[in-house]
Design goal:
Distance between the termini: 85 Å
Number of domains: 3
Shape: globular
Radius of gyration: 26 Å
Oligomer: single chain
CATH topology of the largest domain: Rossmann fold
Largest sheet: 6 strands, mixed
Order of helices and strands: HEHEHEHEHHHHHEHEHHHHHEEHHEEEEE
Number of strands: 13
Length: about 425
């Protein structure tokens, strides 16, 4: 006979409000009642929870997909908890097999260390440095002896590993699975043992690995962590997970104009998802935004502009975000369109054809694409007073200096 489910843990109003905020946008909490109990125990004993999230530095740049987890860590900090930002410099050299249909390329220690340095610089655009402990899992994984590793592998069976969806599919298809890939979830799980974490955050694709950490803590006679999983942030294409390799990402170190402009390009449906997962606005504020969009009292463009300005400010400052928004409005509003104060200069040879200049100035990837842009009337000559004239002759020789605009956002100053 199955054991009865534990009684629902009631929380004081203040803690219930925290619980609702911390679980906003979360796909799943395991076990949810245990998480409520941890919040209550932390509150009554005045002992902060140890909240962990791990990031393998397999690439140098973080994007908004990573920011979903980091933003959730910041919420825990706001409620007084201790954040462990784990840089998986050791596990990155193995490579996480999650969702992979083939064995991953192994990174060198030099590549990993270089990427790890950039992570340390980027995370404090969101996290409070005074409340963050940055840890590297090489600190404990590097010290494990063969005897320790064998002891660790004895905690899990091959059958359990093959319960992972990606492993089982590869095994059924006869595709190779290296033993080192079996080590990855064990080592990620051992991170939780080494750090004695109370909570671990991760994406929904990390569910197996996160639960391994919980299991191992129990086998090492520790209190077991709760697992909180965030949905994978959909990229700018509105279809696939945000990824640098797919080009559908917004990097947190991109130029403010690019961050703002990319956010203004997303669909209305995606905007609401981004509000839930990325905004600092309260649950009540977001509910009012949804209501306003539904009844027509709030225009989608204004809601999107508010979100774009908030996120741009998070990675820069309020003043930079305000200036970026003003600049974007000038460029994209035909009635207010102006000339950007800062733009690249391109030195050209007098008499060069317009298409050649467009391509060489970086406004188009090829001469044929430059010609297409001219034919579609998206190339303009801009005067100092902001007045514009569309250029329609792609063979036109250019013999005087002026500002060239391609589409809505790209400007270059021609200098002979």
């Amino acid at each position: 006979m199955a054991a009865p489910a534990p009684a629902h843990i009631e929380l004081p109003a203040e803690l219930e409000s925290q619980f609702q905020e911390l679980t906003r946008g979360i796909e799943e909490v395991l076990p949810v009642n245990e998480f409520r109990k941890k919040l209550l125990d932390s509150y009554t004993k005045k002992v902060p929870l140890r909240v962990k999230a791990g990031f393998d530095p397999t690439a140098p740049d973080l994007h908004l997909g990573h920011a979903v987890l980091i933003q959730k860590l910041r919420q825990f900090q706001n409620f007084g908890h201790h954040v462990l930002f784990l840089i998986g410099d050791y596990t990155a050299m193995i490579g996480d097999p999650t969702g992979k249909s083939e064995t991953r390329k192994v990174l060198s220690r030099e590549e990993v260390e270089k990427n790890a340095l950039t992570y340390k610089e980027q995370v404090f655009k969101i996290l409070d440095p005074q409340k963050t402990e940055i840890v590297f899992n090489s600190a404990w994984l590097d010290t494990l002896k063969l005897e320790d590793m064998l002891h660790l592998t004895g905690k899990y069976t091959v059958a359990r590993m093959l319960e992972r969806d990606d492993f089982s599919k590869r095994y059924a298809a006869g595709q190779p699975i290296s033993l080192v890939e079996f080590m990855y979830p064990l080592m990620q799980g051992y991170d939780s043992v080494a750090l004695k974490s109370d909570i671990e955050l991760g994406g929904t694709d990390q569910k197996f690995n996160l639960l391994v950490g919980r299991d191992l803590q129990g086998q090492y006679n520790q209190a077991q962590q709760c697992v909180m999983m965030t949905p994978l942030l959909v990229g700018l294409d509105g279809v696939k997970k945000m990824s640098k390799s797919l080009g559908n990402y917004i990097g947190i170190q991109e130029a403010p104009a690019d961050v703002y402009g990319k956010l203004m390009s997303i669909s209305d449906e995606l905007m609401l998802n981004y509000y839930t997962l990325l905004s600092n606005r309260s649950i009540e504020d977001i509910a009012r935004i949804k209501t306003g969009l539904a009844d027509g009292s709030l225009h989608p463009k204004q809601a999107k502009a508010d979100l774009a300005r908030e996120i741009t400010a998070r990675f820069t400052s309020d003043s930079i975000a305000a200036a970026t928004a003003d600049e974007w409005n000038k460029v994209h509003n035909p009635k207010e369109r102006g000339v950007p104060q800062d733009m690249p200069e391109f030195r050209y040879s007098k008499g060069s054809q317009l298409t050649q200049i467009i391509k060489d100035a970086g406004l188009a990837p090829s001469n044929s694409e430059a010609r297409r842009m001219v034919e579609q009337k998206s190339i303009y000559r801009v005067e100092a007073d902001g007045s514009e004239m569309v250029l329609t002759d792609f063979k036109m020789p250019v013999s005087e200096d002026f500002i060239l605009r391609a589409g809505k956002r790209k400007f270059v100053k021609l200098v002979s």
